[in-house]
Amino acid sequence: MSADAAAAAATAASSTAATPSAFEGALAQGIAGVISQPIIELDMRVVAVQSTQAELMKEMDKLTAELQQILAAVDPPPLESILTRLAAVRKRLIAVNAILKAVSERLDRTFSMAASATGRSTLRSAARNSVGAG
Fold first, then answer.
1. pLDDT band at 99 (very low <50, low <70, confident <90, very high)
2. Phi and psi dihedrals of 119, rounded to 5?
3. For residue range 72-83, what is the model confidence (pLDDT) as tens digits?
């Protein structure tokens, strides 16, 4: 092998050795470019959540102070009747949710039977879309 051929081989080896590091650098820059904007947005949202949490804590402190004043009052408001009504409303809400669940299960069975009878699988989704739109 001549000296020129050896020098050319060494130059080719060094350029191919430089290519992976240049590729890695470009890849790293590309990944950083893709990821940097969502990370910045996420960071801004975290800061916003922290700010909102601080405001929430202030409001909770105010509410706690107000509740302590109410509890310290000589003649507290009649909470028993309000609690009784809330318990009654809760029971009715549970009953309504049970009825809605049963109706939903019946509709699912009905649409399933209709879909198997007609060979259509989109009947239920079409009905849900029309109910949601109305």
1. very high
2. 80, 10
3. 876 766 788 888
